[in-house]
């Protein structure tokens, strides 16, 4: 009985591993930075296509049927995520899922299921949206503003230092000028007194 249980457990583990390998073999992994545009192409035969659905993590985004001249059903999840289905017949990306300005909420497992004359075909993608680009843009803006401001402050400091160095000798010269004038006035006063003394002597 114990050996039978071991065999059953071992067989179950092998079955789970094979199933997991089979399910993940056709998954395409995509990694893109936030803010970029991601296009998931659902490669299918357009001639015998009858129905196509797009899902994200098991939640349906779009359901398109070629019957009745083509009917498209868009779920609220598609509007919330701001994704759209390309129905342009003139492009090779027809029925592709277009995700513009991606963010982290767009990360997940996408599935495109098509019904054709050959049966059901599933294509799967695992999309990973990396860090937000806004932080990087903020760093660029801060650097672009900080560098000119630093240069401007440096120029102001240099101009201020030059002006202060030029003004110091002028202050010294101005401080000396009044002394020269007072000395000249004092000498003139002495000469006048001497002149009066000589004049008085001559008269006497």
Q: Low-confidence stretches at least 5 residues in length (pLDDT < 50)?
A: 13-25
Query: What is the averaged pLDDT score?
Result: 76
What fraction of residues sit in β-strands?
25-35%
CATH topology of the largest domain: Immunoglobulin-like
How far from one another are the termini? 162 Å
Domain tally: 2
Kindly provide the name of the CATH class of the largest domain: Mainly Beta
Overall body shape? rod-shaped
Main sheet overview = 6 strands, mixed
* Count of β-strands: 9
Rounded to an integer in angstroms, the radius of gyration calculated over CA atoms is 45 Å
Tally of alpha and pi helices: 3
Spell out the CATH superfamily of the largest domain: Immunoglobulins
Helical residue percent?
40-55%
For the largest sheet, list the strands in their spatial order: 1-9-8-3-4-5
CATH architecture tag of the largest domain: Sandwich
List the helices and strands and how they pair.
Elements: H1 2-24, E1 27-32, E2 38-40, E3 51-56, E4 59-65, E5 71-74, H2 76-81, E6 83-85, E7 97-99, E8 108-116, E9 119-129, H3 133-203
Parallel strand pairs: 1-9
Antiparallel strand pairs: 2-7, 3-4, 3-8, 4-5, 6-7, 8-9
Outline of the structure:
It contains three helices and nine strands, in the order H-E-E-E-E-E-H-E-E-E-E-H. The protein is α+β, with helices and mostly antiparallel strands. It has two domains: 119 residues, Immunoglobulin-like; 72 residues.
């Amino acid at each position: 009985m114990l050996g039978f249980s071991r065999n059953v457990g071992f067989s179950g583990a092998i079955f789970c591993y094979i199933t997991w390998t089979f399910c993940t073999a056709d998954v395409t992994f995509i990694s893109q930075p936030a803010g970029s545009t991601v296009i998931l192409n659902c490669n299918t035969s357009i001639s015998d296509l009858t129905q196509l659905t797009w899902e994200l993590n098991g939640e349906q985004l779009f359901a398109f049927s070629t019957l009745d001249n083509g009917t498209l059903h868009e779920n609220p999840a598609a509007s919330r995520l701001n994704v759209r289905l390309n129905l342009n017949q003139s492009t090779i990306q027809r029925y592709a899922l277009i995700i513009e300005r991606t963010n982290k909420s767009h990360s997940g497992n996408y599935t495109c299921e098509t019904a054709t004359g050959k049966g059901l075909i599933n294509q799967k993608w695992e999309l990973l949206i990396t860090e937000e680009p806004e932080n990087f843009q903020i760093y660029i803006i801060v650097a672009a503003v900080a560098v000119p401001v630093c240069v401007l402050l440096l120029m102001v400091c240099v101009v201020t230092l030059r002006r202060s160095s030029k003004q110091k000798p002028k202050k010294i010269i101005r401080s000396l000028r009044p002394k020269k004038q007072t000395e000249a006035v004092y000498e003139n006063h002495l000469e006048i007194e001497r002149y009066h003394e000589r004049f008085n002597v001559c008269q006497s």
